[in-house]
Write a structure and sequence with these properties.
The complex is a heterodimer of chains A (524) and B (328).
Chain A (H helix, E strand, L loop, with lengths): L10 E10 L2 E11 L4 E5 L6 H8 L7 E6 L2 E2 L5 H7 L1 E4 L11 H5 L6 E2 L2 E2 L1 H14 L15 H14 L4 E5 L7 H16 L3 E5 L3 H7 L2 E6 L2 E7 L5 H9 L11 H9 L4 E10 L3 E9 L3 E5 L6 H8 L7 E6 L2 E3 L4 H6 L2 E4 L3 H5 L6 H5 L8 E2 L2 E2 L1 H14 L16 H13 L5 E5 L7 H16 L3 E5 L3 H7 L2 E6 L2 E7 L5 H10 L6 H12 L1
Parallel strand pairs in A: 3-10, 3-11, 6-9, 9-10, 15-22, 15-23, 18-21, 21-22
Antiparallel strand pairs in A: 1-2, 1-4, 4-5, 7-8, 11-12, 13-14, 13-16, 16-17, 19-20, 23-24
Chain B lengths: L9 H5 L1 H28 L6 H26 L7 H16 L4 H28 L5 H20 L4 E2 L3 H8 L1 E2 L2 E2 H19 L1 H11 L1 H6 L4 H27 L1 E2 L8 H11 L11 H20 L4 H22 L1
Helix pairs in contact in B: 2-13, 3-8, 3-11, 3-12, 3-13, 4-5, 4-6, 4-11, 5-6, 5-11, 7-11, 8-9, 9-11, 12-13, 13-14
Classes of the chains: A alpha/beta (524), B mainly alpha (328).
Chain lengths: 524, 328
């Protein structure tokens, strides 16, 4: 582990204040980052991390405080100025030009020239070299949009690396990556660090922070509440500092509870047999009973989302069959699925979930609105009643049900979307990454809500990239690999190790790897 | 270390400022309009008269009626360039009907059929946009080009002059000294503002434009919503075409509604409806049209030629769009 050198920090932000409309968003916030370190910046949604970063990169103007970067007083008036000074930011939503090639994206705005013309040969060669050094064998002349989010993330990183940035800010960069891709990304980040650059790493995944970061700054309620070497804070301390209260973490039910729950589950709510469409889903068979929560496990790109979309009628099924309550059905559209009591919470909250400009109220009642109308006119009183009920029962934190949903934190947006579906009284919930990109407190809330729904008799199918979260909530797991079901693990047989094993080897049988991991966990 | 704090409340509060700005949007347009009226009351002779009132309002009637439909289409994230052509089709059909079919039945038919014909243009636009997934600007360019040609084929390219008080009442009739068309316009604004705010269709319209993929996954029939928007837009344009020929007592397929698509889009933009979709301020469109008209009137009343007024009009549009962008 690199201990930060004792020299002056590369970045020093002190006593940063900013307020919006008279409300203080940051009060005396601090952040100090040294060259050659990976620095974790953490805090709950709304704690002020993004605001602080936006001030650093010139997107917002601070009202007070000083920023020193690279030995000089810095006052960036735009993200462009910050970039020119050597600060490169990789956002949650990747800023790439989808139709242009990977190579073009990497050198966008600073293309090597020859005789005043773009030197394509050099661009392609250097882009290829760069990605080769990341361990990625891909064709850099293909448009960015043909690649997965993970690869796009790497491309964004490659752009930062090639631009000789002194500091790279990674905001929730890993939220859409699976474990293997995260590892790949980390190796690149470590290389940046060893080159003497500074990396600010924002993430909600605690394990990643410990695996990657040297030091940590914790923010809460617009203030910096802790600055410490990463190793000096254990997980529990970190979370308590972040939340300012003792944690009600995602409680694991033990396998006996899961077994008992499976024993008393109801009849089959939905069953998919040899389901397939295109290349992403080749042969998926699974069933979900009412009163149980089934985890759909698999790497990113294994076909989890695509399987759920087929079960929701969002994409046409080409092979195999679906039956609901024992009767074979063909779902032609989401409307069909909704009419049969199916709900689908998308993994892409921003792109497919919220309607940003509309109010929380309108967003929450989006699906059930049809039932709240009389001759096409919305019954506002009834609508308010439903909205108030869900805001209370799910503990959604907001100022007013009439405020635009984009103003809410990620966790609260997710609860609104969950409420959107619960308001339709569904029998089957398809939850794609329900805890993605939301803070720890909200994760625990969502897990609790899912359990309560299961206990009330709903059939739940959920996916999660983080196996810990999957095994915490699910009673059993179905593992898919390359669009094919490879294992079903019930109650006691389901563990992070056995799932990983199934993902790796394609079978649910206990193997030496799983045993080895279990044994190791038993010791510690 | 443990101060009494409430996490999670910071974010919503931080954003309070934006919410305030959003409310000001509409108010700002009203403020501009009021300021222009006050300016004219002080500096323009004979401004305070029923005649001036009527002149200015009748000038905007067709733009506002077309603009209402345009607002609906823009709310879905689209645009309709063919409204001028739809006006021409309706406007050239009507005289052929009431000049050939006598009596009240002929008049009724002369209203209904042309509006239906125009609406059919909207169905065609909607078909291109929803079924064939053609970009709205390209899809509606088809009828922008062909529509006026179709209208000329109907009339053989000849100008139809007429004098039919019953039909023309829609434009020339007066109620309490105010032209009937003004009341018609205000009624349409009220009805469509209500539709957008209170009905399922209004809600679906905003959702379709605000996030189409979310709308699809929520079981909202996005194709039908767009289809209805384009059809209403073209139908309203047809009605505007009828008013336009009634005012002129003549119908020339070459001239009816010429350039009105751009006037309507300008009114929508100045009225505060973002061209990116997901919002629809029907009342804003009325105010936008009034601002543009009043500006032109003010300049003319102070001896500035119409040509120069066009440049100022462009300036207003730039200012309006700039203000909108600032808010994002």
């Amino acid at each position: 582990m690199n201990t930060p050198n004792s020299g002056t920090p590369l970045l020093e932000m002190q006593d940063i204040d900013i307020s919006f409309g008279g409300v203080a968003a940051l009060r005396h916030a601090r952040l100090s980052v040294t060259a050659g370190e990976v620095h974790a910046l953490i805090g709950q949604n709304g704690a002020g991390k993004s605001t602080l970063i936006k001030i650093l990169t010139g997107a917002y103007r601070r009202t007070a405080g000083t920023i020193r970067f690279d030995g000089r007083e810095a006052d960036f008036r735009s993200p462009k100025e910050a970039r020119e000074a050597g600060i490169s930011t990789i956002y949650q939503e990747i800023n790439l030009v989808p139709f242009r090639s990977i190579a073009e994206n990497i050198f966008l705005g600073r293309e090597p020239r020859r005789f005043g013309l773009i030197d394509w040969k050099t661009i392609h060669r250097r882009a290829q070299e760069l990605l080769d050094s990341f361990g990625l064998q891909i064709d850099v002349s293909k448009p960015v949009r043909e690649f997965s989010t993970a690869i796009q993330q790497m491309v964004a990183l490659a752009r930062a690396v090639s631009s000789e940035a002194k500091m790279v800010i990674m905001d929730e960069s890993t939220s859409s990556l699976d474990e293997r891709e995260v590892e790949l990304l980390f190796s690149v980040v470590r290389r940046l660090r060893d080159d003497g650059r500074a990396v600010i790493f924002v993430s909600h995944r605690l394990d990643e922070l410990y695996a990657l970061c040297d030091r940590v700054t914790v923010m809460r309620d617009g203030q910096t509440v802790a600055e410490s070497p990463m190793a000096a804070l254990d997980k529990l301390q970190l979370v308590t500092t972040m939340l300012g209260r003792t944690l009600a973490a995602v409680v694991h039910e033990d396998s006996a509870v899961k077994e008992a729950n499976l024993a008393k589950r109801g009849s089959t709510a939905i069953s998919a047999t040899n389901l397939g469409a295109g290349a992403k889903v080749t042969d998926v068979s699974l069933d979900v009973h009412s009163g149980e929560a089934v985890g759909l496990a698999g790497l990113l790109g294994s076909g989890r989302t695509e399987t759920m979309r087929l079960m929701f009628g969002a994409d046409p099924t080409e092979r195999g069959s679906l039956s609901i309550d024992g009767k074979p059905v063909t779902l032609k559209s989401p409307q069909d699925a909704i009419a049969r009591g199916i709900a689908y919470l998308t993994e892409d909250r921003k792109g497919e979930g919220i309607v940003p400009e509309l109010s929380v109220r309108d967003n929450l009642t989006l699906v059930c609105l049809r039932t709240l109308t009389k001759r096409g006119v919305v019954d506002v009183a009834k609508q308010r009643e439903i909205v108030d009920r869900f805001i209370e029962s799910l503990g959604i934190k907001l100022r007013s049900a009439d405020q635009p949903i984009r103003e809410l934190s990620g966790g609260n947006q997710q609860k609104v979307l969950l409420a959107r579906w619960l308001a339709t009284n569904p029998g089957l919930l398809l939850l794609d990454e329900p805890t993605r990109g939301i803070d720890v407190g909200a994760k625990a809330d969502v897990a609790k809500i899912i359990r309560e729904l299961r206990d009330s008799g709903l059939a739940v199918l959920l996916s999660a990239s983080e196996l810990e979260e999957l095994t915490a909530v699910a009673d059993r797991a179905v593992v898919i690999r390359d669009g094919k079901t490879v294992a079903e693990l019930d109650g006691a047989r389901m563990s992070e190790a056995s799932i990983m094993d199934a993902i790796a080897y394609g079978s649910g049988e206990e193997s030496s790897l799983a045993e080895a991991v279990d044994a190791k966990e038993g010791q510690s | 270390m443990n101060q009494k704090t409430q996490p999670a409340t910071a974010a919503p509060l931080v954003q309070a400022a934006q919410k305030k700005k959003y409310r000001i949007t509409i108010q700002r347009e009203i403020a501009v309009l009021v300021a222009m009226i006050v300016f004219n009351l002080l500096f323009t002779q004979h401004f305070w008269s029923l005649q001036t009132f009527n002149v200015n309002l009748t000038q905007v009637v067709t733009i506002v009626i077309v603009g209402i439909g345009m607002t609906l289409v823009v709310a879905t994230g689209g645009i309709d360039l063919s409204v001028g052509a739809s006006m021409a089709i309706a406007g050239s059909l009507a005289p052929m009907i009431f000049m050939n079919v006598a009596g009240p039945f002929g008049i009724a038919l002369a209203f209904v059929l042309p509006v239906l014909a125009a609406a059919l243009c909207g169905v065609f636009n909607g078909f291109l946009v929803t079924r064939l997934s053609v970009q709205p600007i390209v899809a509606t360019l088809v009828l922008f080009i062909a529509g006026r040609g179709i209208a000329q084929v109907f009339t053989d390219g000849s100008l139809q002059a007429f004098d039919n008080p019953a039909f023309q009442w829609i434009a020339l009739g007066r109620v309490a000294g105010v032209p009937a068309q003004v009341f018609l316009m205000l009624a349409l604004v009220a009805v469509f503002a209500w539709i957008v705010r209170k009905t399922l269709f209004g809600q679906y319209l905003l959702v379709t434009g605000g996030n189409e993929r979310a709308a699809y996954l929520s079981g909202i029939p996005t194709a039908r919503v767009k289809m209805i928007a384009y059809t209403l837009c073209a139908g309203l344009a047809g009605l505007a075409g009828l008013i336009s020929i009634s005012v002129n007592s003549s119908s020339d397929a070459n001239v009816i509604g010429l350039g009105s698509e751009l006037d309507a889009i300008a009114a929508v933009a100045v009225g505060g409806t973002a061209l990116t979709g997901g919002r629809a301020y029907i009342v804003g469109t009325l105010i936008g049209a009034l601002i543009i008209q009043l500006l032109r009137y003010t300049l003319l009343a102070h001896g500035i030629p119409d040509a120069a007024a066009l440049v100022v009009k462009a300036g207003i549009i730039i200012a309006a769009v700039y203000v909108q962008r600032r808010q994002r």
